[in-house]
Amino acid sequence: MLCLPLKALLENTLGVLKESFFAFALAGLFPPFACPMDKLVIKGGARLHGEVEISGAKNAALPIMVASLLTSGESVIKRVPDLADVKTMGKLLENLGAAFHYESGTAMIRTERINKHTAPYELVKTMRASVLVIGPLLARTGRAKVSLPGGCAIGARPINLHLMGLKKMGAEITLEEGYVVARAKRLRGAVIYFDIPTVTGTENLMMAASLAAGTTIIENAAKEPEVIDLANALNTMGAKVRGAGESTVEIVGVDSLRPLSYCVIPDRVETGTFMTIAGITGGDILIKNCRAEHNDALITKLKEAGIITGQENSTTVRLKGPRRPSGHDIKTMPYPGFPTDMQAQFMALMSIATGTSIIRETIFENRFMHVAELKRMGADIDIEGSTATVRGVSKLKGADVMATDLRASASLIVAGLVAEGKTTIHRLYHLDRGYERIDEKLRGLGAAVERLRDGR
Ligand code: EPU
Q: Suppose 340 and one of 122, 194, 332, 390 were both cysteines; which one would form an S-S bond, judging by CB atoms 3.0 to 4.6 Å apart?
């Protein structure tokens, strides 16, 4: 028999372990038994060639999953990528009373019993896209209590514009103990102007307005392809959304919506990441199952840098990298401008270019976290405010580097693939939030890439 203090200590330790396990599982961060600290080891220098299939777009799949809250019944969404963020969104929907099942790229969501209205801190802090549930929950249940997301690695990222829009539609909004608490009898149509085009803000309001009384006009709306994809998905449910992809979106509210049956667009950021990988490795990559037109700004810049792109058909594009790209400037802008989500990967490409590139980040105030890591690999980059000056060097050298956010992780892969020697990217969980089976896809193109558990 254990003496009492020892027994208490054991029970306490087991309790803490159990709690941590469930906290991780709840947060959807790591599947049970997976190590949170996976790392990626890359031996650089291979010229990548072959074919790669693009997965469904994370940033389209997440709002479309949330749209299922607007209806009662079984929604089926196809080409949903197998990502940590998708699991987190599944947990959040389950937390609200939905039944969520994911198998081989298909998400099935039953929403007959939406009986809760809280998005807890644990989920929102892991995935900011959780704030997308405010609009649909308000529209469906008249209540939403969502943890206010704090700042994140790439910037402050407030949601004031989401809340301003919902207030204009008649919601009463208060802040209680770190939570946004919103109430409304029935939302009503309104004219809403965004000072800054916000992607998830436009999506939140499009969903809320779909079940509101009357017509909502969103001025200076975000035009991203993911916004259009959500509008298309909503329209298949019986919503009346017009103008998505333009700066004015009109939504005529309806009384009810049908369950969803929809297939998500390909991921343009994953596509763009493989494009820069072809460019930096002097490779020859056929990217399949993509929508090249969603990457027009990037493709223009890649062509200027000497990367040859050829459209084989509407969903396939081929990229051939030069021996060394030439330096070009970019400035991130809302779509159709150069995407902030490709800035880090393009900077990695420019780090080995001939000449100097000026990179201006205008969307997020802290999206240069990859610079310090690229410098550890020998890149010559200076930052002043929101501008990075990249003086191309003839080679990078492998090093231990730390992933700080999702796209920063991708830029370290791009750099690691060309660097001399071994690059080890730590904190890989950032990458797993947004790139489906990336190590497997890279190996398919001939890269020497291995995923290891920390400690090995
Ligand atoms: N902003 C405000 N107030 C708001 C909302 C936004 O000031 O209420 C500001 C932001 O701080 C930022 C700008 O507006 O300066 C644009 O932010 P936006 O709201 O468009 O970003 P988001 O909706 O939070 C989405 C993507 C991001 C992507 C940005 C920009 C999803 C789930 N996330 O974020 O994706 O970088 O649009 O295109 O769609 C990623 O996938 O790695 C990622 C960060």
A: 332
Query: Per the confidence metrics, is the pTM higher than 0.90?
Result: yes
Position 456, amino acid: R
Whose C-alpha lies nearest to ligand 1, atom 18? 198
> How far apart are the CA of 199 and the centre of ligand 1, in A?
6
- Residues taking part in catalysis: 152
> Per-10-residue mean pLDDT for the chain, 456 residues long?
41 41 39 62 97 98 98 98 96 97 98 96 92 97 91 82 98 95 96 98 98 98 98 98 98 98 98 98 97 96 95 91 96 98 98 98 95 98 98 98 94 98 94 95 98 74
- The edge-to-edge listing of strands for the beta sheet with 49-53 is 49-53, 284-288, 316-320, 308-313
β-pairing, 240-242 vs 248-252, is: antiparallel
C-beta of residue 203 within 8 angstroms of C-beta of residue 132: yes
- CA geometry: angle 96, 97, 98, nearest 5 deg: 100
How far, in Å, CA of 134 to CA of 166, rounded?
9
Number of C-beta neighbours around residue 20 at 10 A: 10
334: cis peptide before it, omega within 30°?
no
Question: Does residue 291 have its Cβ closer than 6 Å to ligand 1?
Answer: no
Residues 6+ apart with CB under 8 A from 188: 169, 170, 212, 213, 214, 253
Q: Which tokens hold the place of 12?
A: 């306490």
The verdict on the CB of residue 161 being under 6 Å from ligand 1 is yes
Top mutation candidate among 55, 146, 157, 343 for ligand 1, by most atoms within 8 Å of CB = 157
For residues 435 and 274, the answer to whether their CB atoms sit within 8 Å is no
Q: What are the E-state strand segments in 322-409?
A: 330-331, 356-360, 380-384, 387-391, 400-402
- Rounded distance, CA 25 to CA 107, Å? 18
Are the beta carbons of 141 and 208 closer than 8 angstroms?
Answer: no
Provide the pairing of β-strand 422-426 with 261-263.
Answer: unpaired
Residue keyed to tokens 């309806």: 254
Sheet of 400-402, strand order = 400-402, 422-426, 39-43, 448-452
